[in-house]
Amino acid sequence: MMNESRVLGITDVLSQGSQLEYTVPEKSLERVGAFVDAQRSGSNQNAPVTPRLSSTVMLLRERAHPQEGSSFAVFMQQRASSMAFVPDAVVFPGGSFDAMDDTCEIPWEGPLPSQWAQRMGCSEDTARRAFVTAAREVFEESGVLLARRKDGSELLNLAGSEELQSARSLLAGHKLAFGQLLSDMGLVLWTDLFCPCAHWVTPPSEPRRYSTFFFRAKMPQGQCADGKTSEAVRTGWANPEWLLEQQRAGALIIMPPTISNLCDLTQAQNVTEACAQRQTVHVYPEPTRKEDGTLVFRSVVR
């Protein structure tokens, strides 16, 4: 039983050992309530869907003229209304693991997958796949390639590269493996750019479930993020505080895991501080009905 005086809300900064509780959206009350009641009765007709591994990336860059709030901005995109999962929501670039990512060797620079696995609290295979998914998805959705040349030099002026834009289209169409793209161009995945910070698993009451690793990454020098993805209707850079204000005012739809990560971002003073390495927090929200009948999601943060 949770100690109610210690329960944190979705806008509080989470840490390992803390306890989180947040409300179930009104549109989901009937479905979540039916799931909770079935679980209580021992029925298995609502057996949870197995979560799919996915990754999402908070691309960060310093603001040229910060006036208030954070001195940095985060790249966001608003999902198209036609998307099956969280339509219209404002999210970080990201997506699901693709089996093609396992078909060839990934040129790798930085800590080994086994070392990242220790920081992330997961298996070596999961860590490797989460990193590759993060890098591939952010390239597909924003054009930013978190890699560098084998000689250690950074990639510059990618926007005009027809070769990379063609490769980006092939990746999005599942016709090219990310590791093959890197190898063909003499590049290595630059894992030192990444800061894994959180892992959220969609509640078992949901029809679509994801096991999502959240990464932060400093925007590489000489590259620019664009909105050339069919999954989004609007993209751009925004102050984390402003995004949270817009969500509270009802002007933007932002899902709880994204809200939590944005709130955590507001604690940093600059990109360097935001991307400082740390242990990953794990959140496994479970639907439950409180004594007064209110439906909430609860999790002990691991």
Describe how the helices and strands are arranged.
Layout (H helix, E strand, L loop, with lengths): L6 E2 L10 E5 L5 H13 L10 E11 L9 E8 L10 E2 L2 E3 L11 E2 L3 H8 L3 H19 L4 E3 L12 H11 L5 H7 L2 E4 L3 E8 L8 E9 L13 E7 L1 H9 L7 H10 L5 H4 L6 E3 L2 E4 L5 E6 L2
Parallel strand pairs: 1-2, 3-11, 7-9, 10-13
Antiparallel strand pairs: 2-15, 3-4, 3-6, 4-5, 4-12, 8-9, 10-11, 14-15
Helix pairs in contact: 2-3, 3-4, 6-7
What fraction strand?
25-35%
Number of helices: 8
Contiguous runs where pLDDT drops below 50 for at least 5 residues: 1-5
Percent helix among the residues?
25-40%
Total strands: 15
Order of helices and strands: EEHEEEEEHHEHHEEEEHHHEEE
What's the story with the biggest beta sheet?
8 strands, mixed
Derived structural class: alpha/beta
Query: Could you tell me the radius of gyration in angstroms?
Result: 20 Å
Distance between the termini: 16 Å
- Mean pLDDT across all residues, rounded? 90
Query: What does the overall shape look like?
Result: globular
